[in-house]
Structures are given as structure tokens and as C-alpha cells.
Amino acid sequence: MHAENLAGPDDDLERDVDAVIVSCGGDARAAVRALIVQVAYLEREIQYFRVAVSSGFSRQWHHKRWEIETDAGSENG
Fold first, then answer.
1. What is residue 1's predicted lDDT score, i.e. its pLDDT?
2. Is residue 2 pLDDT above 80, yes or no?
3. Is 35:20 a contact under the CB 8 Å cutoff?
4. At residue 10, does pLDDT exceed 60?
5. If you write DSSP's letter for every residue of 44-67 in order, what string do you get?
6. CA–CA distance, 58 with 52 (Å, rounded to integer)
7. CB 71 within 8 A of CB 77
8. Smallest Cα–Cα separation from 46: which of 30, 13, 68, 31?
9. Under 8 Å between Cβ of 44 and 72
10. Would the CA dihedral through 48, 49, 50, 54 be positive or negative?
11. Rounded to the nearest 5 degrees, what angle is found at the Cα of 31, between the Cα atoms of 25 and 32?
12. 4-33 in b/e burial notation, b at 16+ Cβ within 10 A?
């Protein structure tokens, strides 16, 4: 067996982390900033979709699942 065949989810995660840091010019702080911006964007998208999807269609799953609001997109942190 070769080591390449034993690659698991942790290896994929490390490869993704490295790719984000490289895409930000090697600056880990810029990489974290970019990821925070992306999370805030995705949270806003979820809010739009929650409005667009009827509670009957989703069987109110999203109302139960997203009761706790996150503050990644807020200005206070």
C-alpha cells in the first residue's frame, strides 16, 4: 500500500487549509479574514432562502434548526 491510498478527511482538510493560505499570499490573518467574510455571506444567503422556502415545504425544519442566530456577520463580532 502506498501512503497516497491512506489519505483521509484530515489530509483533505489540511490541503484545503493550505490552499486558502496560499490564495491569500501566505498571510494566515488574511486567510482567516477571507473565511469570516465567506461565512457571513453564506449566513445571509441562508436567511434569504429561509424566507423563500415555505414552512410547509420544509416541514418547518429550518425554523427549528436555525433558532439560534449567529453573529459572524454582525459589526460587533
1. 40
2. no
3. yes
4. yes
5. HHHHHHHHHS-HHHHTTHHHHHT-
6. 11
7. yes
8. 68
9. no
10. positive
11. 160
12. eeeeeeeeeeeeeeeeebeebeeeeeebee
pTM exceeding 0.85: no
Amino acid letter, residue 53: V
Predicted confidence (pLDDT) at residue 63 exceeds the cutoff of 80: no
Amino acid at 37: V
69: left (phi over 0), alpha (psi -120 to 50) or beta: beta
Q: What is the pLDDT of residues 18-58, one digit of tens each?
A: 999 999 999 999 999 999 999 999 999 988 887 777 666 66
Please report where in the chains the cell 486558502 appears, as a residue: 20
Q: Which residue has the cell 482538510?
A: 13
Determine the average pLDDT of the residues in 10-15: 92
Specify the residue for cell string 424566507.
51
Statement: residue 7 has pLDDT above 80 = no
Other Cβ atoms less than 10 A from the Cβ of 47: the count is: 13
